[in-house]
Structures are given as C-alpha cells and as structure tokens.
C-alpha cells in the first residue's frame, strides 16, 4: 500500500470507530477484507488509528472536526509531513487539502480550550485537577503518546538476563526496567514478542510495569494462601504465582468466568498452579486467605494510552456507577481475609474518587481494619496509571 492509501484506510476506520464500532473489531474486520495489505501496512494503519484516538480532540480541533479525515490530516501536519504528496486525490490517496483546512491547520493548539489541548472530555477536567493537583496537565500530555511495551520475567522458569538473551535471539531487544527486577521494556521489534521462544515457552509475559508493581505490592510469598478476586485474564494472577514460587495455594475468581477462559493455558505455559474457583467454591471458602487481591472494576483512566477509545466512552453516569460497585467488591472480598491478613485494593484509575476515597469509605465502615500502605503511579513514572492500597484485617 502507498502511504496515501494507508491514510485513507485509517480515515475510514476512524470514521467507523467514531460512529460506535469497537476499535479492535473494526481493525480485524478491515484486515480480513483487505488481504492485499501486508503486515507492515496493517501495523502502520493500526498505529494511525490509535494515535488518532489518543489525540482525538486536539487533532480534530486542528483539522476542523470530529472526523477521521480531520484527525488524520492534523496528525500528519503535526508530524511535518508533506501533505501535498500524501493528500493527492489520485489512486487511493485522500482528497487534496482544501484552503479552509490549511487555514485551520495554521492555528496553534494553545488557542484551544484546556480540555481540548489535553485530549480530555470536558466533564473530567476538574476530576483530574482535584485528583492529581499540579501534575494533572503533565500526566495528560504523557497519555497523548503511545504506551511502552513491557514484559514480566516469569521467575518460575527464567531470570531477567536469560530472558533477554532468548528474546534477542528471536530479534526482540529488551532492556531492564530499574523500578522492578522482573520487568523488561521492549526497545526493538515489539511485534515479534508473541512469536518468540521466550514468550511461547513461558519465560516472559506481556504486562505493563505498573501492573507488575501492583501485583508485587500485594506481598505474596511462598506458602501463603492467596485469592485473586477479580482475576480477569489472569495477568496479575500469574505474577502472584511467580512471587509464590510454586508454593502455597493460589486461587482465581471473576464474576464473569469467561474472562478467565485463557487462564488455564496461560498457567500451564508459565508452569503455575492456579485453582480457578466457581461461585459455589468461592462461597464455601471462608476467611482463610493471607492475601485477597482486588483489581477492582474502574474507569480505566490510567490505561488510556493502551485503550484510548475508553476515554471517549466514559460518561458521567458510567463514572458514577463505579463507586457503588467498588464498595460492593471490597466488602465481598474482605470476607475471605483471615484475621491479620491483607486485603489489597488496586485500580488502573487516576481518579481520587475511585482510589483514596474508596479506601477511606471502607475504613470508615470498618474501623477495626487499618491502612498499612498505599501508593499511586502515573504515566510519569513510566507505566500505566495505577493505585494500590494494602489493608490489614483485625486479629481474632
């Protein structure tokens, strides 16, 4: 495909996504219908689409509207591309740039409202200001760019140096992340990770470094009884298994069992023993856990670099609904913590209402519990935005 044809494809896909189609579904459907597109074409178009979603408001403002063309056109202009060579109207290239579009592109983004400059829905601006204080603008600017690709070294099967060597043999260059001894950051050929022997043999897992830090924060150790209460796909469950070194009892549960459908295969590849609970086995468990880890349902504001369409799907009513749900999940999960054990609450949210406020409410209703430690991470720390708190149950 020519560079212009790639732009046309991205414009069409963005229009489809802006009309309500899920991004991944739209991209998959396009790929199936476009067998002529090679792997490099698909990767380039995907990058254009996700870049456009991350910067939807700022690029749309510069380009003249909330459309695929405006977003892609402004994106190319901000990269100092030769627009006349790309927007020719010939073959599969997009139509030429109009005089009106050129005038709009000549504006400075500093003229736009703050929420437009920072690619944020208007109603969320005060939420970010109150939650992050003086750092809010820097955090939001960081989230306008692509997230790094991080790996977690599975210590059940390997160590960091060995994993780096095996990855390099398959063309993937990775370097250590200073904040966590099991974390690697891919610096070359991230798209080769899934096919690498380090991945297929369970030496590494794809996992953002902040997510890894959240799992490590739980403090799982060999011999413990641990429950991952909102396991989802099981990324943090596998990290907990690695920390437990194959010793103890590790359980996973999710209110939607389908989210865990790949976990048994992932556990086998990782060499991890994980007991997947159904509702009846969870109900019969009782207060036996040293650690109950709760990665609670949330707005996902900390992961917008990876899932930018979630930013635009978040509306006030949906944000309000998370609070009661988080309170319910915390209350339910606390039942399984043994006396003196830990309840670890985590979200990939940057908003105080989903983090500190939820912990404060839980403690106000259970004054015999205490907060041992809490921590907040933002993309300025190198990974996704995350919050985590470790709560201690009263002794018997």
Please give a structural write-up:
The chain is α/β, with parallel strands linked by helices. It has 3 domains: 3-112, no CATH class; 152-206, Alpha-Beta Plaits; 217-392, Rossmann fold. The chain is 43% helix and 15% strand. It is built from 19 helices and 11 strands. It has helices at 3-18, 23-33, 39-54, 56-63, 68-78, 83-86, 99-105, 114-117, 125-132, 136-142, 160-169, 197-200, 209-217, 235-244, 263-270, 279-283, 309-313, 316-334, 356-365, and strands at residues 150-153, 173-176, 183-188, 204-206, 225-228, 249-252, 275-276, 289-295, 337-347, 370-377, 386-392. It has a 7-stranded mixed β-sheet, sandwiched between helices. A 4-stranded antiparallel β-sheet has the order 2-3-1-4. α15 (263-270) links the parallel β6 (249-252) and β7 (275-276). α1 (3-18) packs across α5 (68-78), α4 crosses α5 and α13 (209-217) packs across α14. The termini are far apart.
Features:
396 residues, alpha/beta, Alpha-Beta Plaits, Rossmann fold, 3 domains, seven-stranded mixed beta sheet, four-stranded antiparallel beta sheet, 19 helices, 15% strand
Write a concise synopsis of the structure shown.
The protein has 396 residues and is α/β, with parallel strands linked by helices.
């Amino acid at each position: 495909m020519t560079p212009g044809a790639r732009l046309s494809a991205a414009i069409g896909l963005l229009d489809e996504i802006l009309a309500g189609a899920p991004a991944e579904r739209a991209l998959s459907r396009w790929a199936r219908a476009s067998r002529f597109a090679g792997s490099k074409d698909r990767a380039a178009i995907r990058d254009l689409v996700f870049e456009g979603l991350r910067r939807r408001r700022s690029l749309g403002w510069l380009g003249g509207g909330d459309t695929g063309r405006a977003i892609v056109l402004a994106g190319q202009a901000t990269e100092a591309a030769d627009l006349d060579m790309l927007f020719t109207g010939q073959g599969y290239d997009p139509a030429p740039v109009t005089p009106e579009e050129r005038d709009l592109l000549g504006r400075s983004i500093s003229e736009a409202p703050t929420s437009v400059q920072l690619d944020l829905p208007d109603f969320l601006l005060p939420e970010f200001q109150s939650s992050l204080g003086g750092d809010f603008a820097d955090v939001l600017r960081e989230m306008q760019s692509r997230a790094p690709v991080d790996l977690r070294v599975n210590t059940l099967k390997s160590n960091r140096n060995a994993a780096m060597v095996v990855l390099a043999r398959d063309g993937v260059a990775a370097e250590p992340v200073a904040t966590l001894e099991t974390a690697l950051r891919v610096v070359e050929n991230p798209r080769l990770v899934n096919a690498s022997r380090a991945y297929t043999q369970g030496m590494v897992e794809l996992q953002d470094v902040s997510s890894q830090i959240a799992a490590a924060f739980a403090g799982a150790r060999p011999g413990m009884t641990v429950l991952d209460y909102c396991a989802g796909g099981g990324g943090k469950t596998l990290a907990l298994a690695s920390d437990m070194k194959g010793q103890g009892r590790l359980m996973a549960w999710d209110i939607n069992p389908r989210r865990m459908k790949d976990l048994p295969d992932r556990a086998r590849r990782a060499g991890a023993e994980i007991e997947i609970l159904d509702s009846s086995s969870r109900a019969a468990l009782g207060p036996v856990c040293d650690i109950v880890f709760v990665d609670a349902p949330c707005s996902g504001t900390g992961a917008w670099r990876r899932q930018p369409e979630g930013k635009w799907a978040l509306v006030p009513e949906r944000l309000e609904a998370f609070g009661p749900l988080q309170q319910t999940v915390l209350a339910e999960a606390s039942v399984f913590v043994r006396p003196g054990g830990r309840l670890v609450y985590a979200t990939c949210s940057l908003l105080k209402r989903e983090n500190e406020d939820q912990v404060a409410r839980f403690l106000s209703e259970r004054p015999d519990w205490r907060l041992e430690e809490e921590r907040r991470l933002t993309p300025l720390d190198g990974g996704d935005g995350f919050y985590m708190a470790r709560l201690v149950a009263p002794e018997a």
